[in-house]
Amino acid sequence: MNKVLLVGSPNSGKSSLFNRLTGLSQKVANFPGITVDVTSGSLLALPDVELVDFPGTYSLQAISAEEEVAVEYFRRALADPEVRHVLCVVDATRLEKSLYFTLQVIRDAQHHGKLITVLANMADIIDRNNLTLDADALAAEIGAPVLMVSAKSGSGIESIIDRLRDALVREEVSGGRWSETPDALLRGTAHQLAHQHGPRGDVLIQSQTRLDRFFLSGFTGGVAFFGIMLLLFQSIFTWSAPVMDAVEALVGAVGSVVVPLIENTVIADFVADALFGGIGAFLVFVPQIFVLTFIIGLLEDSGYLARAALICHRPLRLFGMTGKSFIPMLSGVACAIPAIYAARSVDSQRQRLMTYLAIPLMPCSARLPVYALLIATFIPDETMFGGLLGWQGVAMFSIYFLGMLMGLIVTGITHRISRVVADDLPFVLELPPYRLPGLLPILRNAEKRCRHFVTKAGKVILSVTIVVWILGYFPNYGADLATSWLGTIGHFIEPVFEPIGLDWRYGVAIISSFLAREVFVGTLGTIFGIEDAEDNMAPLVDQIQASGLPIGSGVALLVFFAIALQCVSTLAILSRETRSWKIPLRMAAAYLVLAYMSALGVFYLVEWLV
Questions:
Q1: How far apart are the first and last CA of the chain?
Q2: CA distances from 407 to 48, 316, 320, 359 (A)
Q3: Which residue ranges does UniProt annotate as crossing the membrane (predicted)?
């Protein structure tokens, strides 16, 4: 099968062209560092031709992880005899930015005897602003055809197909004027050619500068940043909530229809609690992932996300992260799963790892039922300052703040003790032009991200759910959780929790919460003989208070849940993103020890004060 390579610099519209030419849902973003995979698809007009889309790069001298991927695969592909042509996409409105990379690509393609065509994208913007790009003169200078195209409007697509159809029947060429030219000379030539033949971009620069005066200034920029982040936060919590409830209700409704049809009690319990419970445990996150991916896609495509990263970079760099870490950390307040996906935007592998370290410590929404139960049990429902503040509200704020603070402390300490890392990159951020987002590619990417979560992480989550169900159901067939295998494990680990005043019941609830943090409440309700404790906590609060659990133990539990790594879903996604179980398991162990030691210290401090 004939292959055509598609390369280009970030924000040049390369992936949009890929979508136009193949119809596939490749990621489109206006924020550097998003695409990290090499994707391929057959051309719609030439089904026997495979188009291979590489990550956007600024140069063939790679400095970031995704550039290394692009350069490695590109140079390997040039040696492939099935590769017949190279398409290099440039941003026609910012020719100088793209032309150096283009000349490098032409040089390497000529060295391997491959034909190349340069696609000057954004032709619609050039025409709309009455700008000019002398494509014929530029083509004569660089020794390769230059086609004016627009991925957004679709203009020029037919000329690309005609060029490929003609080129595929031609023999490979040998040599060329650039085949032995060093990078230093190419850089100077690119600057000269862009100045001679490129558009005068004063109009575009002035328009972008006016918007940047608003979005990056001290006051208006801060107000806009706060408003946009509030919109993002509300989208995760509010907009996805009805769909999450609907998914949970649908899974429950299907289960209520299927389970009564099963005569065997054990199998019926397994299907109801393990299968449908496990499926619901990860399907309920899908709306959040979709909404978050969609909103972030809008911010990326519009060009604002790069500005948000610039605003946040200075404070976050003190803790070993980058401005691009802010969105993943903010997303983690709703759920760690979409937040970990969002961390793909961080260029440096080291800074991405720092972001992964911080995300699980963000106070996710699944912890809220645990916090609500413990605060209602141990913190008096009284007010201060004339009723302006309540002690329970202050406690909730404090535990949320503790999680965020611990995230920064952990990454800051890790940053200090591991300063010399070859992978660490300087914070270099291109501020792309402001553009109207393309909704269809963003919707496609959100759907793709959800499908990836269900098919990849869902298997792990469901497997762990089944294991925990087996431990809690046997050998007494669910008659008594205290005498089940899970209860036996709780009794076994009871000495671990005795120093903070907790018995086996809380140990079992903590183990169960590994499935999802809110399961802690339901498990305690089951142990105390209270049904539907998640929906009505008052009887469970009374039971815990009557059991004589010390207030130090309650506060210690709050601290423990604020620091301990989140659920199995978090581990599954971390393993997928890092492509290894080593990092998430080490994180889980480290945060478990940190959570336990912190809870122990808080327990003795509260008991001493009380």
A1: 76
A2: 51, 11, 11, 7
A3: 214-237, 243-262, 274-299, 325-343, 355-379, 391-410, 453-474, 555-575, 587-606
Over residues 479-484, the mean pLDDT reads 79
Report the range out of 32-36, 230-234, 323-327 with the highest average pLDDT. 323-327
Nearest to residue 559, comparing CAs of 502, 590, 605, 598? 598
Q: For residues 538 and 527, what is the distance between their CA atoms, to the nearest angstrom? A: 15
Encode 216-256 in three state secondary structure: CCCHHHHHHHHHHHHHHHHHHHHHCHHHHHHHHHHHHHHHH
Q: Is residue 535 part of a domain?
A: no
* Residue 60: DSSP 8-state: S
Q: Is residue 220 part of a domain?
A: no
pLDDT in tens, 554-587: 999 999 999 998 788 888 888 888 888 898 999 9
Q: What is d(CA 395, CA 557) in angstroms, rounded to the nearest whole number? A: 13
Contact predicate 291/240, CB 8 Å? yes
Q: Which amino acid is at 109?
A: A
User: What angle, rounded to 10 degrees, do the helices at 391-417 and 368-378 form?
Assistant: 130
Apex CA 61: angle with CA 58 and CA 65, to 5°?
75
Asked whether the bond before 363 is cis by omega within 30 degrees of 0, the reply is no
CA trace torsion 394, 400, 406, 411 (10° rounding): -140
Q: What is the greatest pairwise CA distance in the chain?
A: 87
The CATH number linked to 121 is 3.40.50.300
Number of domains in the chain: 1
Q: Tokens in use for 39?
A: 């994707």
Q: Is residue 553 part of a domain?
A: no
Q: Is 586 helix (H, G, I), strand (E, B) or coil?
A: helix
- List the domain range (segments joined by +) for residue 184: 2-199
Count, residues in the chain: 610
Q: pTM of the entire structure?
A: 0.64
Phi first, then psi, for residue 88 (nearest 5°) are -115, 120
**Short-list 304, 167, 130, 286, CA closest to 229:** 304
Please name which of 46, 104, 29, 99 lies closest in space to residue 70, comparing C-alpha atoms.
104
- For 26, the 3-state DSSP assignment is coil
Cβ-contact 85, 116 below 8 angstroms: yes
* Cα within 13 Å of Cα(567), Cβ side: 30
What b/e readout covers 468-481, taking b as 16+ CB neighbours within 10 angstroms?
bbebbbeeeeeeeb
C-alpha to C-alpha distance for 568 and 584, rounded to whole angstroms:
10
Is residue 530 in a domain? no
Q: Of all helices (H) and strands (E), which one includes residue 50?
A: strand 49-53
* Residue 603 pLDDT: 94
Sequence-separated (6 or more) residues with CB below 8 Å from residue 288 = 236, 240, 244, 334, 335, 337, 338
User: What is residue 377's predicted lDDT score, i.e. its pLDDT?
Assistant: 87
297, 306 Cβ separation under 8 angstroms:
no
Q: What is the 3-state secondary structure (H, E, C) of 283-315?
A: HCCHHHHHHHHHHHHHHHHHCHHHHHHHHHHHH
- The secondary structure of residue 275, as a DSSP letter, is I
